[in-house]
Specification:
The chain is an alpha/beta fold and 266 residues long. The protein has 2 domains: 2-110 and 214-262, 3-Layer(aba) Sandwich (D-Maltodextrin-Binding Protein, domain 2); 112-211, D-Maltodextrin-Binding Protein, domain 2, CATH 3.40.190.10. Helices cover 36% and strands 24% of the residues. It has helices at 2-12, 19-24, 50-62, 76-81, 96-99, 142-154, 171-179, 190-199, 225-241, 243-250, and strands at 26-31, 34-35, 39-41, 47-48, 65-70, 87-88, 102-108, 112-117, 134-138, 164-168, 185-189, 204-211, 216-221, 261-262. The strands form 4 sheets. Strands 10-9-11-8-12 form a 5-stranded mixed sheet, sandwiched between helices. A 3-stranded parallel sheet has the order 5-1-6. Strand 9, helix 6 (142-154) and strand 10 form a beta-alpha-beta unit. The radius of gyration is 20 Å and the shape is elongated.
């Protein structure tokens, strides 16, 4: 634990870390490790990814241990509200709806993408090329509504056939539809595609312009200003050290770098 001791003086200078966390000597962080490259279990079943490495750096700066608490994604917000964890850091988007019950320290500019198999990428050069095609997308994400809107503006409003949208239970399920040749396209976070480009180069290819996406945020209990500000300040320290950009670049998501802000979605 020498690393934690080395940064303890710096941690003491970090304003606003709640006394309960100082006394505990640790921050409990909720995560759902099934979203590579943000968080996942590697071939040795160890936690890995952007968020996992950033959590480690935050722990060093704040001078506390990071205790990862795994949870299904749809239970993460509740785990903060019930006090089971102090933070959630799991590729979770800052939205106005979520801000009603939680606060966010935004730290990563996510992007969405339409994609297809690498062999078919050349078929989609302009928006109208998706009209009448079958497209799979998780019905649980913002991308579902975005694809519906894109179908309307790019196709229906121009008198072209609508996109045949297949809602799935997850991004992985949508990707399986591509693999099995059941759909022409799918939509999900560009982050996933960056990971697959590293692990299976050329298997998939993003097409057309990126879809708008909300930034990922570190979620804290609503009104926990001390903790939110301490996390934001610690993130800025990680950025200034150069480690933030190194971690993003390592995982192929350097495009998402941003200056941390609390509840940045308005």
């Amino acid at each position: 634990m020498g690393g934690a001791e080395d940064v303890a003086p710096e941690a003491g200078a970090t304003p606003g870390l709640p006394q309960t966390i100082k006394d505990a000597g640790k921050i409990r962080v909720g995560t759902s490790p099934n979203f590579p490259p943000m968080e996942f279990r590697d071939s040795e079943n160890k936690l890995a990814g952007v968020d996992i490495e950033l959590q480690e750096k935050l722990g060093e700066v704040l001078g506390v241990e990071i205790e990862v608490v795994e949870s299904p994604f749809d239970q993460l917000i509740n785990s903060v509200q019930t006090g089971r964890v102090d933070l959630v850091m799991s590729g979770i988007s800052d939205t106005l709806e979520r801000q009603k019950t939680a606060d966010f320290v935004d730290y990563f500019n996510s992007q969405g993408s339409l994609y297809t198999s690498g062999a078919r990428a050349a078929e989609f050069k302009q928006e109208t090329d998706i009209c009448g095609k079958k497209l799979a997308v998780s019905g649980k994400t913002d991308y579902f509504e975005q694809v519906k809107a894109l179908s309307q503006t790019a196709c229906v409003d121009k008198g072209l056939p609508a996109v045949d949208i297949l809602p799935t239970d997850s991004g992985a399920a949508a990707r399986l539809q591509i693999d099995q040749g059941r759909v022409d396209l799918a939509a999900q976070g560009r982050e996933n595609l960056a990971y697959f480009e590293q692990t299976e180069p050329g298997k998939y290819a993003g097409v057309l312009e990126p879809l708008a996406a909300k930034p990922f945020g570190i979620l804290v209990m609503k009104g926990e200003e001390e903790l939110a500000n301490a996390v934001k300040d610690a993130l800025n320290t990680v950025i200034e050290s150069g480690d933030y950009q190194k971690i993003l670049d390592k995982w192929g998501v350097g495009y998402g770098a941003m200056t941390p802000v609390i509840n940045g979605v308005k």
